[in-house]
Amino acid sequence: MTLTASTLYCPRFLALPRAVTAVPSEAQHGEHVVPHSHPWVQLLYASEGVVRVRTELGVWIIPPRRALLIAPGIVHELTMLSRVNMRTLYIDAAAGAGLVDGCRVLEVSALLRELILALSAEPVDYAVPGRGEQLAQLILSELASMETVPIAVPWPRDRRLRALCTDIMDDPGSRRALEDRALDAGASARTLIRLFPKETGLHYRQWVQQVHLAHAFQMLARGDSVGTIAASLGYASPSAFTSMFRRLLGKTPQHYLTEWRGPG
């Protein structure tokens, strides 16, 4: 997957009005933002809905109450997987130094969520000194302490491996044999399995599990049951899927279903 910044993209800002700028927006299911980059750190936070973000580094599914930090200069594109209520932070590169190298998904604490919403209600050129500046400083402090959520799908550069990964991403629950998929990609299954750690940092089965987590978050966010998700991803039972999910994330799918159905 090679992304080149599109000439169709119109930047919201030529220069940031403040060190941290919060911009609220809404988008409909299926809306797409063409590949682009920023000279500053960006935080994508959907208080409602699910967003898919693609970069040359990987693919991220961003469910509610999680956020993606994107380093300056990273070309990325967005696809809305549902109706989305977005709160985007643009952070001056100097102010955001050390927050992210590449991309990472964050847990959004209750405090950080309220700070983001509060700054989003302020004008982008809030007074300095003033309340907006105080909110911005608190946001930077909270971001520095947020935990990373391991739900990234790293993307390979090898053409044959990209073909296989695309096939798996498009149909993650398929029971089609790896050997058949590999033939379509133009290499042997053994060759592709050997390439996975070199190209993605993950073994084949680990990479597939990351794809399953990404799709599971998308389905959980729209309210699908654990049984439905397990069946769609090819697991023998809901308990088998739940076991994988809890082993990798330390929480059950039901935990997220309960969380997202709750207030706020």
How does this structure look, described?
It is a single chain. The protein has 264 residues and is α+β, with helices and mostly antiparallel strands. It is built from nine helices and ten strands. The strands form two sheets. It has a five-stranded antiparallel sheet with strand order 1-8-3-6-9, with helices on one face. Strand 4 and strand 5 form a beta hairpin. Helix 1 packs antiparallel against helix 2 and helix 7 crosses helix 8. It is globular and about 60 Å long.
Uncertain runs are none
- Secondary-structure element string: EEEEEEEEEHHEHHHHHHH
> Between the first and last Cα atoms, what is the distance in angstroms?
36 Å
Rg, nearest Å: 19 Å
DSSP summary, beta strand count: 10
- Helical fraction equals 25-40%
List keywords for this structure.
21% strand, alpha+beta, single chain, globular, 264 residues, five-stranded antiparallel sheet, 39% helix
Layout: helices, strands, pairs:
Layout: E1 20-27, E2 32-36, E3 41-48, E4 51-55, E5 58-62, E6 66-70, E7 76-80, E8 84-91, E9 103-107, H1 110-120, H2 131-143, E10 153-154, H3 159-170, H4 178-185, H5 189-200, H6 204-221, H7 226-232, H8 238-249, H9 253-261
Summarize this entry quickly.
This protein has 264 residues and is of the alpha+beta class.
